[in-house]
Design a protein that fits this description.
alpha/beta; 3-stranded antiparallel sheet
Length: 391
Amino acid sequence: MSMINADPAKTEAMRAQFELPAGMTYLNTSSHAPMLRGVLAAGQAVLARSGTPWSGTDADWNAGVERVRALAARWLDGDVEGVAFVPSAAYGIAVAARNLPLSGGGDAVLVLDGQFPSNLLVWQQRCMETGARIVVARREPGQDWTDAVLATLERDAGIRIATLPQAHWHDGAMLDLDRIAPQVRARGAGLVLDLSQSLGALAVDLARWRPDFVVSVGYKWLLGVTGLSLLWAAPHWREHGVSIEQHWSARDAHAVWRFDPQVIPPYRAGARRFDAGGVIELQRLKMFEAALLHLQAWGARAVLAHLRATTDALDAALDDVGLSSWNTTLHAPHFTGLRPPQERFSTVVAALREANIACTARYGVLRIAPHLHVAPTDMQRVVGVLARAAS
């Protein structure tokens, strides 16, 4: 399917490609994407063959790995040599923390207020080890995240690393990396991007942003599975970076099997040196491949257009019933966060569950994150439930 359309028949056909029970409105892609039937079938096919480990060859295996690497690279400026497979975003960020220089004497790492733990904990540990410090960008009243980050960069000359998302995990509030990245680079600081809440939905411009490392899980907007995530490394780190684990499959195949204890086998080419051991398991690999092939067939622009139309419909419906004040200002085109009055929050959450509408409800925010299985017209039902619960 090359086009995504709001026509009811086509919308229903799209929904039928996902493993979803009848009557459910699933709005929790920012936590875990709904499973595509094609992805599930790919995993089941591998499981059915798992009793024959003698089938297939190393060449088949390697070809499959590189095929999926190339599919994933389409979402990262098409740069196949920059892509590594890791088990989690946290693992990828740990690679970045292992390699980017940081020391005491005033060095600092810039994070967002309320940043997701996977992109905070490793920097806290690194700062504890080096004597560096964490600097937190906090929004002033009426300020967006972009201006908050730029103001923090301006205030603190000690920032050596900025580690940021493209959209805040909590409510979809956007960061303008076109404005932020040049300012990080102008001061010679390292840039790490966690795109777990945007890769697969929003376009990236790595040539413009020039990050050192980029990470993303595979099971959210890329529609894959847990346990297989992506790490992208800039050209410098593909040549000079050091992995946080050492295993034979990340090394030159000829040299590693010479068993010479005095000679360290060279890494494989590109970011493959950062491939984690054991995570490129056949079932995960085939399921991720199936997901990426679906996204490729639909087309990145069509996916984003549908997601934008759906959240636009949500925004309009909220405005129609006088609830636009709940919405996140400048939210991402693919998900947002709603803030009902605190005294009505539990009532609103209960009403959504009663209506079989699934979303994340946490810290006073309802995170609304649809994918292609949700039509723009579905948002009217969602907002109707919200309005009744709020009255």
